[in-house]
Amino acid sequence: MALIELKNINYCYSPGTAFEKHALRDVSMAVDAGESVGLIGHTGSGKSTLIRHFNGLLRPNSGQVVYQGNDLWKKPNEIRSIRFQIGLVFQYPEAQIFEDTVGKDIAYGPRNMGIGQEEMNARIRESLQCVGLDNSYLERNPFRLSGGEMRRVAIAGVLAMRPKVLILDEPAAGLDPEGRHALFDALRHYRRKSGAAVVLVSHSMEDIADFVDRVVVLDQGSVALDGPVASIFAQAEKLVSIGLDIPQSTKVLLGLKAKGYSVKTEAYTVEQAEQELLRFLKEADRP
Amino acid sequence: MTRDLTVGQFIPGHSLMHRLDPRTKLMLTFLFIIQVFLTKSALSLIFLLLLLWIYIVCAQVPARKVFRAVRPIIPVIIVTALLNIFYVSGHVLWHYAFLRITDQGLFTGFTLLVRLITLIAGCSLITYTTSLNALASGLEQLLAPLKRLHFPVSELSMTLSITLRFLPTLAEELDRIIEAQKARGAQFATGTILNRIRAFFPVILPLFMSAFRRAFELTNAIECRCYHGGEGRTKLHPLKLGRRDYAAVIFFLAAFAMTLIFNSIRQPF
Ligand SMILES: Nc1ncnc2c1ncn2[C@@H]1O[C@H](COP(=O)(O)OP(=O)(O)OP(=O)(O)O)[C@@H](O)[C@H]1O
Ligand SMILES: [Mg+2]
Question: Which residues cross the membrane (chain B) (predicted)?
């Protein structure tokens, strides 16, 4: 059984006004425990709207959100306790920082959960370490950190709640390559340690290919494709037709193939492409 | 939720009323208000209702929306009307202890009711058919003569339009921050008053931080484009009075005169 499942979600912004916008149409998707799912789609396709349904920030006009077999909106008073299990990291999460020290800000979520001081300290240190910052940051003023450091502090604030499902909306937007690597290492580290499921919203096909097992493609508010990474990126034409892209390394291989070289095109990360090219070169050397 | 507040009530459209110059609409609204206050007789009251109906049709705003604008103040209107019913002297129709209802009182109360509703409904039309930006720039031009008195009209209107421009942005930001803190378990509507106030710090502080950041960025951007105050600035879309506007003014003045005439015709009340 899926850990969390969205069933036939419909959502409309400002219904009944001139600004009415049907943002989601009959969207269904499921996330299993420990799975990592990528959510991609053109700008305005409804990704951010969709992830707000996972933890009950938006109430669907019709359809169900089922977490561990329970309908979220059957008992609206319990949604708050479910939010602690489904961590949501918004686009530009550094905007949510408000305390004067990094430690206090990370403590905000766990304190809302009612966690005791001792465990709190442990959690703060652990999540700070997880995002690759050391304990010297604890007493620092978050507003004096660099953008990338602030981002990691904000994410640590969500990790400290130890969510079973972690949802991130374009966490790497605006970070330099190094910051991006550090961020994804942190996420991998958290997954390995906690076994949490991760939903990653991203515009970067490289990040998606690198990090997730399964991809859900949204197009104008409905699910266009849903499947393993390989089967999604194999449909390059369909992706391009809905305004998306395929990873650069896949493009290189497709280009070579079009020129008549017999390379396999099922490589989505740089490492896979490298291996395939080396294999091809070795075979080509042989007479 | 907050977004609905900040768009104002503006309903985009292309009706006759939408296309009038904001200056015309501001002045005509003022004229209409005076007209409502001058309405005294039964005949001019009926005329006023007819006018309101014409204006609603010209604005192509659903009547439902116009009455939604009136609804919040209906209790106030009713109380005012009731007080009038009991306090105005005239032929006594009914009395009990110190309470008495007179024919004049009944008429005054009723007139007041209709006039106030018409007033609010009429004024709501301008907000339904004019965007806040258009209103601001109309106001600027109307106040332009005050520049002679060294009143900083352009600066004030620049401030006003920046405020209007950033209201929706800040409202969106507010929504986002509220959601982010809710996702971390924030609760806003429970507990003691002190706790409720405390619950808002995690929202207000980031909002201020971002407002300040935006203000500094905007100041830099404005200075980089050599802004030096209102002296000699022209507009991208200068307001222009058209034939439509003159026609509207003539119509309103005629209607105003009709009200005065209807007031003076001898009637039962
Ligand atoms: N608060 C809102 N009110 C009205 N419409 C909205 C609101 N938020 C989003 N929308 C609209 O809903 C649609 C989906 O928006 P959403 O933010 O979910 O897109 P997205 O896939 O996250 O895009 P991006 O990749 O740019 O972040 C868009 O057309 C957007 O204009
Ligand atoms: Mg988005």
Answer: 26-53, 73-94, 106-129, 246-265
**Residue A53 predicted with pLDDT over 80:** yes
Q: Which CATH number fits domain A1-85+163-231: 1.10.1740.10, 3.40.350.10, 3.40.50.300, 2.60.120.460?
A: 3.40.50.300
> Where exactly are the structural domains of chain A?
1-85+163-231, 96-161, 247-287
pLDDT value at residue A15: 84
Question: Rounded mean pLDDT of chain B?
Answer: 86
The whole-model pTM stands at: 0.77
Per residue in B14-39, pLDDT (tens digit) is: 999 999 999 999 999 999 999 999 99
B186, exposed or middle or buried, with CB in 10 Å at 0-12, 13-18, 19+?
A: buried
Choosing among B184, B195, B216, which should be mutated to test the A contact, i.e. which has the most A CBs within 10 A? B184
Q: How far is the CA of B188 from the centre of ligand 2 (A)?
A: 25
Mean pLDDT score, B234-251: 88
Would the CB atoms of B183 and A90 count as touching at under 8 Å? Answer: yes
Residue B118 belongs to domain spanning: 22-265
Q: Between A18, A57, A158, which is nearest B11 by CB? A: A18
CB contact under 8 A, A157 and B184: yes
